[in-house]
Write a structure and sequence with these properties.
This protein is an alpha/beta fold and about 260 residues long. The protein is built from 8 helices and 6 strands, in the order H-H-E-H-E-E-H-E-H-H-E-H-E-H. It has 2 domains: about 50 residues; about 200 residues, Rossmann fold. Strands 2-3-1-4-5-6 form a 6-stranded mixed beta sheet, with helices on both faces. The structure holds guanosine-5'-triphosphate and magnesium ion (MG). The site of guanosine-5'-triphosphate has 22 residues, from helix 3.
Length: about 260
């Protein structure tokens, strides 16, 4: 009972001190203090919400057999998991890049989605594009020529998608399988793709507007198509998912998903 009385007295003393301080402090300073007390948590809450909505998704797309799943495993485990079969559904996971394992705990994980290249499974891509921070388009640099047209068609569809164009999503074209001596160089692949996409553009703009599924037309009318004319930034790199030569891919990922 005595202890309770002691506490009540102490509380009254504190209240008196606060009242005294309020009377002595100018009104403007009081408003500032109240403002800081109420607005700081609000601003902190907004900052954390903004940070959370920043995407950490990287999408791997490209024709079937180009090596997306091999690259996915190489990024995650540092090994190609030889013998991967044609993927039947998207392969996704949030992880630390294998090469960054020593920094574990301090860096942000990356959400990587590998979308199968089979034409019937490609529509899965639309589900992931609105949350993509960067898109990696994988090309088989060995079997490039026989697949040049199909590659250009798929890439054209991607580069014309409103969900990528409006947010100016960076697209990295990866010429994979450079461990093979017969692999074409990235400069050769870039030029061939530009030529093929130029032809595609001519045929696609000839179709009536109602038939065009793409929201944007690529390039500059009247000029030969080049990737530099695209609304998005398009760059080209070389890699080998088999031997783990993926430094340029990792650099691209970390450019768009800050560690
Ligand atoms: N030489 C060589 N072979 C590779 C490389 N990357 C993948 N491959 C081989 O290419 C084949 C196809 O690789 P996947 O990773 O399954 O291809 P994908 O793009 O996932 O194919 P889908 O799932 O059908 O869309 C496999 O036999 C791989 O072992 C590479 O860098 N070099
Ligand atoms: Mg696959």
């Amino acid at each position: 009972m005595e202890g309770m009385e002691k506490w009540t007295n102490q509380l009254q003393q504190w209240l008196y001190q606060v009242e005294h301080w309020v009377h002595q402090t100018p009104a403007s300073s009081l408003y500032v203090a109240i403002g800081v007390i109420f607005f700081t948590p609000l601003i902190l809450l907004l900052i954390s919400l903004f940070r959370r909505t920043k995407s950490n998704t990287i999408v791997l797309a490209g024709l079937t057999g180009s090596g997306k799943t091999t690259l996915f495993y190489q990024l995650r485990d540092g090994s190609p998991h030889l013998g991967t079969a044609t993927s039947m559904e998207p392969n996704e996971g949030s992880f630390m890049l294998h090469s960054e394992f020593s920094k574990r705990g301090k860096i942000k994980p990356v959400h990587v989605v590998d979308v199968p290249g089979h034409s019937r499974l490609r529509p899965n891509l639309d589900k992931y594009l609105p949350q993509t921070a960067g898109l990696i388009f994988v090309v088989d640099a060995v079997e490039f020529l026989p697949n040049c047209r199909a590659t250009a068609e798929y890439l054209y569809d991607i580069l014309a998608k409103a969900s990528l164009v409006k947010r100016k999503i960076h697209v990295l074209i990866v010429c994979n399988k450079t461990d093979k001596v017969t692999a074409h160089t990235k400069e050769f692949i870039r030029k061939q793709l530009e030529k093929e996409m130029d032809k595609l553009r001519a045929s696609r703009t000839a179709i009536s507007d109602a038939d065009i599924a793409n929201e944007f037309t690529l390039g500059v009318t009247g000029e030969a198509f080049t990737f530099s004319q695209c609304h998005n930034k398009v760059t080209i790199a070389e890699a080998s998912g088999l031997t783990g030569d993926i430094a340029q891919i990792e650099q691209f990922i970390r450019e768009h998903v800050k560690p």
